[in-house]
What we know:
It comes from Wuchereria bancrofti. By secondary structure, this protein is mainly alpha-helical. The protein contains three helices and two strands; from the N terminus they run βαβαα.
Amino acid sequence: MAKTKEVDPNKLPNKRWLAPEVLTTKLLTLESDVFAFAFLMYEVLTMKIPHETIEDKNILEYIAKNPYVRPS
């Protein structure tokens, strides 16, 4: 079983939950899955979708310009 999968971020249906590095590497990894799961938990706990003020058509540009700082 492969640990990564190459994708085109523009063709993914759930861009709001996309880890920022997927935009540059075009790879889905275990780490990007954990990131997406964390955003899902955020949505469940707050009852708000990620980046709720950003329109769907602008979400990839927003993620690219506003990367998250991950804890080290």
